[in-house]
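Lab notebook, page 48
Experiment: co-folding of the full assembly
Goal: obtain a model of how the components sit together before planning crosslinking
Operator: M.T.
Materials (sequences as entered):
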Amino acid sequence: MNVTIVDYQSGNISSVINSFTEVAKGKVKIEVTSEINKIKSCDKIVLPGQGSFKSCVDSLNKISGLVETLKDFAITNKKPLLGICVGLQMFADIGYEEAETKGLGWISGKVSKIDNQNGKFKLPHIGWNEIEIQKESKMFKDIKNKSHMYFVHSYEFIPEDKSIISATTNYSSKIVCAVERDNLFGTQFHPEKSDKIGLKIIDNFLNL
Amino acid sequence: MLKNRIIPCLDVKDGRVVKGINFVELKDAGDPVEQAKTYSDGGADEICFLDITASNENRETLIDIVRKTAKKCFVPLTVGGGVRTIQNITDLLLAGADKVSINTAAVKNVDLVKKASKKFGSQCIVVAIDAKKVSENKWEVFTHGGRNKTGIDVVDFAKKVEENGAGEILLTSMDKDGTKSGYDVDLLKTITNNTNIPVIASGGVGTLDHLYDGIVKGGASAVLAASIFHYGEFKIKDAKEYLNSKNVSVRL
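Observation: model returned without errors.
Model output:
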């Protein structure tokens, strides 16, 4: 099996590479690339994302044919794709970080700043928070409810269709922290930085 | 709910972990890669490396140590010391750091914080502030590992780095560092009350109760400590169990 981590110059993806390489342990081939042909022919895609919604979308668009290729892969052909952090947020129609920016539009919804309730909640939301699993999920196989995951973000994904939400976390309000629809997966938290439990989630994705 | 973080800090010099009192009299405290791994296996919420001499002796930070550590530790890794340019940050992030901490360079040129947070995202830009008390409820920013006085008020500077996109503040009390007499709680309170980004408390931990004070009295989102963990006085687990027993929420 070949798993591609999409390298579209979206900031720091070393931790994603390290953790997937650790879990794959040579059984699964992990490739880090932005080459369209390689992405087309792989079995699973990981779409990381750091920095702002706008900078990530802009970087994706800079690589000719990448957005269409990802859409064919994940939406038309329904092959497994995991978006992490801004990688997940980009599934939305629209994001409001820096400037109003069109997302990939794969899951109807928007990405807005977390309400800090007049400074009561510090932003970014940084650190370990418990996830509340909302539905049976392939990604959360053997993961206990209320497990701790590592978060670092100031914006949240608000999807229209609540049935795709697989987990939430409490910070200021109930924040969507994982989505799952067919073979499309996303986590707001960073499984690559979430210790052994995070590595288990990566393992679940590789074992799909 | 969001948990309070416990962050063991490894002061690194010439590839070894060291610990001193008030930033001088350095003692050898082991191999950084090995120690980072022990901490992450032991439940540390993050790991922090500070290359304490880089800024002063014009050395680049220990990219190789970062690279080796990042392959073994799957909790966030912050690296600081001698970070002066966007290129320095790029190198550390590529080696596997998750966050980079900027100290002296942020004081000299706050634009670096702005540019870095714009380029890499606020989530990976920590500004480390070394503060020294100058009078009642007044602290000043120091640079170069606590050697140089700047005349800049710490509250003004904390607000300025927040405005310029810092994701977190790592606040060290120079008066307390290495003394084991507890954090400067007044300093912490002043900064946590005047900023809206997470503050990491640093400098002075000698007992587990000091960690409690940093979080509960000082309002810190995370507590950083070095010597109490290095010399085996306490394990990360002890600290977490103690805080939990006092109703401070931690990741157990």
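Interpretation: Chain A has one domain: 2-206.
Next step: discuss with group before ordering constructs.
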